[in-house]
Write a structure and sequence with these properties.
The chain has 407 residues and is α/β, with parallel strands linked by helices. It is built from 14 helices and nine strands. It has three domains: 66 residues, no CATH class; 67 residues, no CATH class; 239 residues, 2-Layer Sandwich (Nucleotidyltransferase, domain 5). Strands 1, 2, 3, 4, 5, 6, 7, 8 and 9 form a nine-stranded mixed β-sheet that branches. This is ISAzo13 family transposase.
Length: 407
C-alpha cells in the first residue's frame, strides 16, 4: 500500500502544526486508521519515527498522557539571547588585519584566542561578564564561523621577479602544446629535501609504539629523493642518492628513465622538461647544458627546457607528490637505507605506486666548462627571445630549445 503524495503532504503539514501530546495523539490515530502494517507504512511513507508512534499509541490505549518537560531539554542557543553576538565576534577577528601604527605590517600584535575575544566583547562591545557565555562556548562559535586553528600557510613567495608573470604565461603555452601533441612528452623533475637516515623522530603519529633518539645528531647517512613525474599519466619515478645532486646525476637518471621507458613512447620526438631554475640544472650551468645536449644527441630527441621562475617552484607538478611521500613515512623510524626505499616504494599517487631506484654512484661537484667551451654550447641551443610579451620579449634563461641534429 502506498499513500498518495497529496495525502502525505496533508498529513505532514498537520503534524507540523501540532506539538507534544497533541502531535503524538494525531500520529497514533492516523496509524490506527491505516490498519495492519500502519506503523511500517507511516515510517516508510511519512518519515515518522517508531518511538513517537509507539508512545502515542500507548497513550491512546491507556488514556494516560505524558507531560513533556520542555524546560529540561536544554537552553536556547546564545545567539537567540544575544542576536548581535556572532557579528561582533566576526568584527573582532577580522579587525586583526588592520594596519599597525608603524605601518610596517598588516596585523596587530595580539593573539586572537577565545578568551581574548571574550575580553574584547566586554571592553569594546559593552557586553556584561554575566550575560556572555564561557570562553569554551566562544571557541565553539569561532570554529563554527570558520575561524578554527590552522597552521600558517606557506603561500607567499619570498620574491617575485618583474618577469615572473611573463614566465608563467609562456609556461602555460608550452605545457598546453606539449599535452595536446602525442609526439611531445612532458616531464616534471625536481629534488626533495635530504632525509637523515637513523633512529630519528620525523613527526607524525604511528599505531605502533616507536622510540627515537632524543637528538638528531650523526645520521648514518643522508638520502636525497629526486623525482621524474609524468603529469599526463600521473606516473612517478623516484631516484634516491647518498651523493650530492649534481648536473651529472640529473642527466644520468634522466637517461636511466628514458632507457627503461622509451619503448612505451616510440612516437615521442620531443621532451619538455619542467624544472626549477636551480644551481645544478639551470640553463647557465655549463656542465648541465653540456650533458643535456649529449643526451639529446644520444637518444635523437629534441628537448625543450621550460623553467619555473625563482621562488615559485612549488607550481611544478612533481611538488604535489612530495607531500604524499612525507605522509607515507612520517611517524616512522627511517633507520636504514632499505627502510627509506621500502616506504617510498609503498606510497601511492593517484592509486599508482612509483618506480623506486637507489643510485649508488658518487658524483663530483664543481665541474665547469671554460667560457670557450660554453660558447660552443650556446651555438647548439636556441633561447627564447620573442615571447609575445611586450614588457619581456627575452625569456632566454627560462625557455631553451635543443634540436637533435644528425651527423
Amino acid at each position: 500500500m502506498l499513500l498518495d503524495n497529496s495525502v502525505k503532504k496533508l498529513l505532514n503539514e498537520a503534524v507540523k502544526q501540532l506539538k507534544g501530546a497533541a502531535k503524538r495523539n494525531f500520529i497514533a490515530k492516523t496509524v490506527v486508521e491505516l490498519g495492519f502494517g500502519g506503523q511500517e507504512l507511516a515510517i516508510k511513507e511519512l518519515g515518522w519515527t517508531r518511538y513517537i508512534i509507539r508512545k502515542g499509541i500507548k497513550e491512546l490505549k491507556t488514556g494516560i498522557t505524558c507531560i513533556d518537560n520542555y524546560s529540561a531539554k536544554g537552553r536556547n542557543k546564545i545567539e537567540e539571547k544575544l542576536p548581535n553576538l556572532l557579528n561582533d565576534i566576526k568584527d573582532i577577528v577580522d579587525s586583526q588585519s588592520q594596519i599597525d601604527p608603524s605601518f610596517k605590517s598588516q596585523r596587530l600584535y595580539t593573539r586572537i584566542t577565545a578568551s581574548c575575544v571574550r575580553k574584547q566583547l566586554i571592553e569594546k562591545y559593552i557586553y556584561s561578564n554575566e550575560e556572555l557565555p564561557t570562553s569554551e562556548t566562544i571557541r565553539i562559535k569561532l570554529n563554527n564561523l570558520g575561524y578554527s586553528l590552522k597552521r600558517v600557510a606557506k603561500v607567499q613567495p619570498q620574491k617575485k621577479l618583474p618577469e615572473t608573470d611573463a614566465i608563467f604565461e609562456q609556461l602555460a603555452i608550452v605545457n598546453k602544446d606539449a599535452d595536446s601533441d602525442p609526439s611531445i612528452l612532458r616531464l616534471s623533475m625536481d629534488a626533495k629535501a635530504r632525509v637523515n637516515v637513523g633512529s630519528f623522530d620525523r613527526g607524525g603519529k604511528s599505531r605502533i609504539l616507536t622510540e627515537a633518539s632524543d637528538h638528531d645528531f650523526n645520521p648514518k647517512t643522508t638520502l636525497t629523493p629526486y623525482g621524474i613525474f609524468i603529469p599526463e599519466l600521473d606516473e612517478l619515478f623516484l631516484y634516491l642518492t647518498e651523493s650530492k645532486v649534481t648536473s651529472d646525476f640529473i642527466v644520468d637518471i634522466l637517461s636511466d628513465f628514458w632507457e627503461s621507458q622509451r619503448k612505451r613512447f616510440a612516437e615521442v620526438k620531443t621532451l619538455v622538461l619542467n624544472q626549477d631554475n636551480g644551481g645544478e640544472n639551470n640553463s647557465r650551468r655549463t656542465q648541465f647544458m653540456k650533458r643535456i645536449i649529449e643526451f639529446s644527441q644520444k637518444y635523437e630527441l629534441n628537448l625543450r627546457l621550460a623553467y619555473y621562475p625563482p621562488y615559485h617552484s612549488k607550481y611544478n607538478p612533481i611538488e604535489r607528490t612530495w607531500a604524499v611521500l612525507e605522509k607515507q613515512w612520517n611517524g616512522s623510524i627511517l633507520d636504514e637505507v632499505e627502510t627509506v626505499l621500502n616506504f617510498a616504494s609503498n606510497m601511492e599517487w593517484k592509486s599508482k605506486k612509483p618506480i623506486v631506484k637507489l643510485v649508488n654512484q658518487t658524483y663530483q661537484t664543481g665541474i665547469k666548462l671554460t667560457k670557450k667551451a660554453m660558447s660552443k654550447i650556446e651555438n647548439q641551443i636556441e633561447r627564447l627571445t620573442d615571447s609575445n610579451h611586450e614588457s619581456f620579449p627575452n625569456l632566454g634563461n627560462w625557455f631553451i630549445d635543443i634540436c637533435f641534429v644528425k651527423t
